[in-house]
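Lab notebook: predicted structure, single chain.

Context: the supervisor wants predicted structures on file for every construct in the current expression panel, including those that have not yet been purified. This is the next one on the list. No modifications to the sequence; it matches the entry in the shared construct table.
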Amino acid sequence: MEESHPSIAELIMSLQQATYMAKQLSSTTNPTHLHQIHSSLYHAHRHLSSFLSTLPSPSPPPHAAENSLSSANGAAEPMQVEDDAVGGGADEETTSKCTIDKVEEKMRDCFIKNKRPKRPLSPSAAAVVEEKRLSDDGFVGRVKDYDPHAMRLRALDLVYQFHG
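Prediction complete. Output recorded below exactly as produced.
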């Protein structure tokens, strides 16, 4: 274990040197200085790579495949039935309920917007709606007091509402 301490110290020194040199990268145009910065970064990279190669690689987390596309469509592995007597079924059920609750909570904030919002009703169209609401039959009131000018204005309002 004591053999790794000097390599850690060298790694720290090379990373500090590379950080210092990298900060000077934007302010220099001298080719010699740029070469020194490059070599410092290269040595830090080499020290870091050699240090990481001495460490044992960690095993991937067991739940990493749950979010992948292959696990979603079942292409990577067939479905497996677990034995609920072991006790693992309750934990998975709790986890799945928790996941479902999280998704539902996020979906509450989502809503689909229309690409083009509707225009507000024109005053004459609002009057027609009010007239229909007041009379039992929508056509009775309009047939008695038929006004061709008002009918033309309503038609133009509709044209402008949808094509304006």
